[in-house]
Structure formats: structure tokens, C-alpha cells
Amino acid sequence: MTILKSLLEQKISEHRPRTARLLGEWSEVVVDAVTIGQIVGGARDIHALVTDISYLDPQEGIRFRGKNIPETFAALPKAAGCEYPSVEAFWFFLLTGEVPSLAQAREVQDDLSRRAAVPRYVFEVLRAQPEDTHPMTLLSMAVLCMQRESAFAARHREVRKTQYWELMYEDCCDLLARLPEIAAFIYRLKYRQGDIIGARSDLDFGANFAHMMGIPRPYDDVARMYFILHSDHESGNVSAHATHLVASALSDAYYSFSAGLNGLAGPLHGLANQEVLSWILHFQQTLGDTLPDEDRVREALWETLSAGQVIPGYGHAVLRRTDPRYTAQMEFCQRHMPDDPLFRLVNMIYRVAPRVLSEHGKTKNPWPNVDSHSGVVQWHYGLREHDFYTVLFGVGRAIGVLANIIWDRALAYPIERPKSVTTDMLEAWGRAG
Ligand code: NMX
Ligand code: MLT
């Protein structure tokens, strides 16, 4: 057994009594009340999910296993010559809450490499799709068609409930290991005339992805940074919640993660990174190469708002400050590409948009989220086909949501089934005050 799996087993057995106590002793303790506004308004802010893998504070942003983004990057080991930790080290950290040594991260890398071979039929399914199929559709299809490989689906009836997590762990590791090759294949099939670059088993997740994309260094570090930043955002976001919900029916990791990806593909969620780039490029075309002044940016923002559209990459359901994932990418750009014209334009928009959105007066959060910066970095390194950007988000998101569903089965969380009510009932409660 790998060190990761045996440590995870230990962490799970230490954690189980906590869940048992919550259910046994404190099950009836009230932690929240629910208003009509929340029932009609997308369950916003209702405390109704549990995860220990990440927590999102509205002011501070995300913490992974208790560490904020700079602390996470500082704590995790980095291989020689790398600016960012490996995805493998981060996977170990998310699953166990412990910072691995470089050797432990390397063991995860070897384990994932052994699992990484993508079945041939996946490539055949992808090649068979019409040329204009969206890359997110391809990614979701690739994941779903591997469902027949699921160890959980094949064997969970033969084992005790306390062992479910082991089968889920096997599936999640297999699935995660295959995603870089699947994503790079989709990219090169669609945008590089099918000129596929084979995987290398000696490289870590980020470096192998960069290699298969055909983009030289420091894109390996860009990939590591990008995947870690996009991994998890607690459990209520659409992709994490959809994955968790589907897995709660004892659907396996392939069914569940494919559902999560389908949610991520919406423009109010992960697709916003593609929309941001389209919006900025359209804006740049009308302005030419020169950096516009603040008045012109303000005008363009108002044009979008007056047309009844949202400013993509701004606003958030939980955050009430600039997303620290935005800041982490901005700091990367300041170090690596300070004079990039698109980066300068994004900075200019950042100076103006929060004020415009505040004057507009609708959004509760006028500050940028992760999506308003991620495309700029990709564009700079030559990845300019922006309808591919959400696929990158999806690969990163897998790390968080797959870690979560392993823990879901370890802690035997039941099928999720909130109660609905009718409009008549809400009106009656409303009238009664
Ligand atoms: N531009 C213009 N209007 C906005 C924006 C924005 N960026 N953000 C929110 N609003 C509007 C929103 O449409 C709503 O209007 P209405 O009452 O007419 O329906 C109003 O402000 C109140 O919305 P909020 O309560 O502030 O936001 P909510 O929690 O409902 O939605 C988002 C959160 C993220 C869906 C929303 O801010 C948005 O649509 N942003 C733009 C799309 C985007 O960047 N999505 C990516 C989010 C991060 N991710 O990766 O998933
Ligand atoms: C995410 O990363 O999932 C987004 O920021 C959306 C969210 O948290 O609701």
C-alpha cells in the first residue's frame, strides 16, 4: 500500500468518531434558519453541506486544509527548478491534511503514472465527434465513457460500507491520472490538426501536461499553479455540489465527475473564463493596440451592463473581496510578464470595474473572481483558443471534487435529498409572517 493510502486510512479511522458524535449527540442542534428568499434564491448562504478539504471565507477567500493560497504554495515541497509544488503533493495534502515530503510526493507521482494509460476507445469516441463540439462536451464525454472501468460500480456490493472509500479511491486516482492526457488530446485534436504528443511517465502531472500540450517552460509551472488554484472552492459551488450530489446516490466517480463538469460548463460558473477573454478581445479590437484610458474602459463596462449582460469575471456568490486566486495569478504575471498588453488591460479594468459595478448597484460583490485573470496567463503562453479554457478549470477542479467524494464514502454520508415546497406553501408562510 502507498504511504498516501495508508495515511488516508489512518485519517479516516481517526475522523469517523467525530461524524458519529455529530450524528449521535448533536444531531438536533440548530445551526441555521432558512428564509423564503433563500429558498427561492438558490439556497444562497444556507449552511447545509460539510467538507474539511477547503473552506471559503467571504473576506479572506479560500483555505485548503486550513492554509490560504500563499501558505499552501510555501508549505508544499517543490522539485528542483520548479516555482510551484506538484499537483501530486497537493493531492496528498488535500486528501490527508498533511504536507508530504518530496519523496512522498514522488511516490504519488509514480502511482499516478502507473494508472495514467487512457483506454484507446476514449480517443476513438473523441475523434468521432463533429468538429464544432465544445471541448467541455468532449471532456465530459471522455470521462463518462470510462465509467465501464469503475471498480466502485463493479465491486461495491461485495464489500462492507466501511470499505466503499477504497474502491472510490481507486477510481478517483485512475481518473485523475488520465485527465492530463485526455485534456491535451482534446486540445491537439481540435486546434493542432490532431498532431498528438505522447505522454511521458517520468514527468509530474503539470510538466507532463505542458509537454503534451507542446508548450515549453515555464508552462509546466503555469499548469501546476493553475490546477492547484482551481482545485476546490468548498462544497456549495455548482461543480463540487453536482459531483457530490450524484456520488451520494452511490454513482461512481466517472458518473459523478462528468456531472460536475457539465455544471462547470455554464457561463455563470467555469465558462466565465472563456467569456472574459471573448469580452476583452472584443473590447481590444474596438480600441486597437493602445492601452485605453480609464474613461474608455468605464464606457465599455457600461455598454455591457446597459445591454443587460454581466461583466464576466466579476462578482461571486460567497466572496466579498478580490478573489485571492485572482491575486495569485496577478502576482505570477508581475513576475513573468509585466509588460504583456493583455495583462496591462486586465489591470486597467481592475482599477475601474469595481467602481462601475458599485454604481450599477446590483451585484453584492463588485470585485474580480478567478476567471477574470486565468485566460490572460494562458494567452501569454500561446494557448489562445479560449473555448478550451474551461477544460483547464475542469482538470484542476477534479483534484478537489474527487478528494471530496472519497471522503464522502469514507464518512458514509447518505444520499442527498433536500425537501421542496410549493409556491402556495411559501405564500402562506409569507402571509403568516
Ligand atoms: N455584472 C453585472 N451584474 C452582476 C454581476 C456582474 N459581474 N454579478 C452579479 N450581477 C447581478 C446579478 O446578475 C443579479 O442581477 P439580477 O438581480 O438582475 O438577477 C444581481 O447582480 C445580484 O447578484 P449577486 O447576488 O451579486 O450574485 P449571485 O450570487 O447571484 O451570482 C455570479 C454570482 C458569480 C453568478 C455573478 O456574480 C455573475 O454572474 N458574475 C459574472 C460571471 C462570472 O464571473 N462567473 C464566474 C464565477 C466564478 N466561477 O468560476 O465560477
Ligand atoms: C468556484 O471556484 O467554484 C467558483 O468561484 C464559484 C463558487 O465558488 O461558487
Automatic annotation (TrEMBL):
Residues spanning the membrane: none
Transferase recorded as keyword: yes
Pfam families the record matches: Citrate_synt
UniProt entry keywords in alphabetical sequence: Transferase
Metabolic or biological pathway: Carbohydrate metabolism; tricarboxylic acid cycle; isocitrate from oxaloacetate: step 1/2
InterPro entries listed in its UniProt record: Citrate_synth-like_lrg_a-sub, Citrate_synth-like_sm_a-sub, Citrate_synthase, Citrate_synthase_AS, Citrate_synthase_sf
GO MF entry, a single one: citrate synthase activity
Entry superkingdom: Bacteria
EC code(s) of this entry: 2.3.3.16
Enzyme class: transferase
GO annotation terms (biological process): carbohydrate metabolic process; tricarboxylic acid cycle
PROSITE patterns: CITRATE_SYNTHASE
Family statement drawn from the similarity comment of this UniProt entry: Belongs to the citrate synthase family.
Name of the molecule in the record: citrate synthase (unknown stereospecificity)
Source organism of the structure: Roseateles asaccharophilus
